[in-house]
Amino acid sequence: MKDKVQVHKYSTHFDFSPNALSSAGTIEGALIRHNGGYGCLQPWPSLGDEDLDYHLLSILKNNPTEQALACFKCCEIDGNARMKSIDLFENITIPEYHFTTSLPTNHKISDEFKNELKAFTHLKIKGIKDTVKVAHYLELLPENLFFRIDFNSSLSPEECVQFVQHLSKPCRDRIDFIEDPFPYDPNIWDRFTKETGINLALDRGPQDAENGFNIRIWKPAIFPYVPNNVPVCVTHNMDHELGRRYAAYQSAITNHTVTVNGIGPFDEAKNGPGLGMSDLLENLLWDDLK
Questions:
Q1: H or E segment to which residue 6 belongs
Q2: 139 and 68 part of one domain
Q3: Same domain, 121 and 213
Q4: Helix (H) or strand (E) holding 97
Q5: Does residue 17 sit in the same domain as residue 112?
Q6: Is 146 strand, coil or helix?
Q7: Which domain holds residue 163?
Q8: pTM score, whole prediction
Q9: Which residue(s) pair with 193 in the sheet?
Q10: Are residue 266 and residue 284 in the same domain, yes or no?
Q11: 160 CB contacts (<8 Å, ≥6 apart)?
């Protein structure tokens, strides 16, 4: 990039498996400062992304990856607002969000967890390859909840059909969608929906994909432009709070989103110019990207 780019690297530790293809442990990311604005860059190599250094090198080579471009778009939006002292969250309404959970190791549901779920209408579950355990877990959940199950393309079509068959009809009827059940193929995805009546949501698939799914997942930290397909479910990238705030902002201003998105809790106390968090961001140690 012609203009100076500064980087603050960070790491996030997960005590649980954050998805079907990632183990518990640490994920590396970086906050980017560019033209007075901030963005977040956190790839997931376990899901097929190039690692962080690859994306940073693409910036140095003045040939930024798509994910780096998404980060710079965030920097631009944030920087323009900070320059004008505009709070991006003023006069907008942050949508509701689903509760996200992984299956507990004992596959049981505590009363404390049930009480926590009372504030939500939708629960997103990080699926595992043992679909019998996933199905059993769903059957134990409160009857007022709708489910979103993300298998991160870890199943085969046959395994996903078997998963649906393990569910009782009342439980099956509460599935809002299954996200990335198996690798995207529009014909196979379309056939699965016709056979099962289950809606599918596409996250990790071609950006120009048009068929075989009912919902398009959009992570603003991954892809810079709103997908043409509607409806869209805006979701954060399990990244730094700045990246999650950017997802919350995009969910509020983007047309054709679902009612309940995947943006997580939002702390209004950290609002301010741009995406907020000014005190924290300005006091971090920043290095020139070189």
A1: strand 5-14
A2: no
A3: yes
A4: strand 96-97
A5: no
A6: strand
A7: 96-270
A8: 0.94
A9: none
A10: no
A11: 131, 151, 178, 181, 182, 192
* Cα–Cα distances in angstroms (integers) from residue 71 to residues 52, 149, 160, 173, 202, in the given order: 12, 27, 34, 38, 21
Q: Residues, the chain, total?
A: 290
Please state whether the peptide bond connecting residue 170 to the residue before it is cis, i.e. omega within 30 degrees of 0: no
Residue 90 falls within a domain, yes or no?
no
Tokens representing residue 249 in the block: 């902002």
**Domain annotation covers residue 91:** no
Please give the C-alpha separations between residue 249 and each of 70, 143, 218, 255, in angstroms, as whole numbers.
14, 31, 13, 12
Q: What is the pLDDT along the chain (290 residues), one digit of tens a residue?
A: 558 999 999 999 887 777 777 776 889 999 999 999 999 999 999 889 999 999 999 999 999 999 999 999 999 999 999 999 999 999 999 999 999 998 877 767 888 999 999 999 999 999 999 999 999 999 999 999 999 999 999 999 999 999 999 999 999 999 999 999 999 999 999 999 999 999 999 999 998 999 999 999 999 999 999 998 779 999 999 999 999 999 999 999 999 999 999 999 999 999 999 999 999 999 999 999 99
What does each C-alpha distance from 232 to 75, 109, 188, 266 come to in angstroms?
23, 30, 21, 20
The two structure tokens encoding residue 290: 């070189």
Q: Can you give the CATH number for the domain in which 139 is found?
A: 3.20.20.120
Residue located via tokens 């505590």: 110
